[in-house]
Amino acid sequence: MLKNTIIKQKGDRDRLMSLPYVERTQEKKAQKWMSSDLIKVILGPRRAGKSVFAFMLLKDQSFAYFNFDDESLPGEEKIDLDELLSELKQVYGDTQYIFFDEIQNLPNWELFVNRLHRSGYNLVLTGSNASLLSKELATHLTGRHIPIEILPFSFQEFLKAKKYEFDAGKLALPEEKAKFFGHITQYMTNGGYPEVVTKDVDPRGYLDVLFDAVLFKDVIKRHKVKFSKQIDYLGSYLINNVSNQYTARRLRDVLQFKSDVTVAKYLDYLIEAYVLFSLDRHSSKASSRIQSAKKTYVIDNGLVTAKAIQHSPNSGKLMENLVFTELVKKGNEPNRELFYYKTRNDREIDFVVKNGHEVVELIQVAYDVSNLEVVEREVKALVEAGQELQVNKLTVLTWNEKREVKKGDVTIMFRPLYEWMLEVNNKN
Questions:
Q1: Quick one: pLDDT at residue 299?
Q2: CATH 3.40.1350 domain span(s) along the chain
Q3: 64: which strand partners?
Q4: Stretch(es) of the chain classified as CATH 3.40.50.300
Q5: pTM higher than 0.70, yes or no?
Q6: Residues of the chain with confidence (pLDDT) below 70
Q7: Sheet harboring 348-355: ordered strands across?
């Protein structure tokens, strides 16, 4: 039985490795770790391209492959691991490298992985659950692993997938400008999941099904959730209220949960499964960060479009979510290097970017700055927050507006979204 599964999966492996590939931003950095004996752990949401990324890292190596997210398996808890190793050796021969896909589906996987690591194998793992990094990995593989996060395509990767080479000089041509902004609109609306981008799949059908699969496999099944409808309602509600503030109590009242504790627990499950992010309010006091309302963001704009109750999602909300996800893809960790902020006068700053303990930039997102009142509001908030947090780099990201606004001795940069997204990122 296991041998048949391994042979079938080998065929899947070889087929995927033969297909055209969009190079990911993290690839060069990850390649440096391939010869190391550290366990390479590739984390990210389902269908974001983790497996293909791992295949490309291993393409010059002889390696064995096994996917624990295979419906033909009798049940992960029933797999004889000694038999698995024996069958892998028969199919692939003696290989130093082994790639285990969706390792979180194997109960007590960390014990198995540790055993193989001690035996001298060079291991690559993928997982669709963020707690692999925060809990199990930190507890069981301390100092013996390197985490690599793969999310849906960034805008730069999206353009690579579309085989589009950006040339700022061509934007003066109406036809070229229309084509380029068509790509931005498509990315902002449909998101960056590889299947959606490379095959022009309708995100509503594809991502709606993906959401249900993630909910069942990575939340309900993994955590043995009894009230599956409730967690579905919670996820759908938060996706439809992207970039809004929330508290567990408010969610409890709106969705008629029995307790704040259940809401918080279910929310953690959705964050672990790479459906949502929760962003803290910036404060120098830990107690204030914990007690303040949080903001919710979604892993990919395509999910917002797919789960939208209204016919057309709000462009301003989509753009803010896009900026958040691009900030994360640029290497800013939410609630460590990335926050939102409220001034003493209750003016909101969309994003506070930190480097260590220092705040380095404040970012506002404004889709339409043709209204002078909107401009004045954003400028006032940034100037006030800049004084309170002692930061000079103040940015308003717009759809297609570039200019400087001076307020006393403070300069606020208005920058087009595309220009900011195309910046070379030194963090990755």
A1: 98
A2: 315-428
A3: 98
A4: 2-149
A5: yes
A6: 75-77, 132-136, 138, 311-313, 426-428
A7: 338-342, 348-355, 358-365, 394-398, 410-416, 403-407
Pick from 298, 152, 310: nearest CA to 235: 298
What CATH number labels 2-149? 3.40.50.300
State how far the Cα of 312 lies from the Cα of 264, in Å rounded to an integer.
29
Task: Please report the pLDDT score of residue 93 as a whole number.
Answer: 97
pLDDT, position 127:
92
- CB count within 10 Å of CB 370 equals 9
Q: What is the pLDDT of residue 313?
A: 66
Kindly report each contact of residues 51-56 with a partner whose C-beta sits within 8 Å and lies 24 or more positions away, as own/partner: 51/16, 51/101, 51/126, 52/16, 52/19, 52/21, 52/194, 53/24, 53/26, 53/27, 53/150, 54/99, 54/101, 54/124, 54/126, 55/13, 55/16, 55/17, 55/99, 56/17, 56/21, 56/23, 56/24, 56/27
Where b means 16+ CB within 10 Å and e means fewer, 198-228 reads: beebebeebbbebbeebbebbbbebeebeee
Architecture of the domain made up of 315-428 = 3-Layer(aba) Sandwich (3.40)
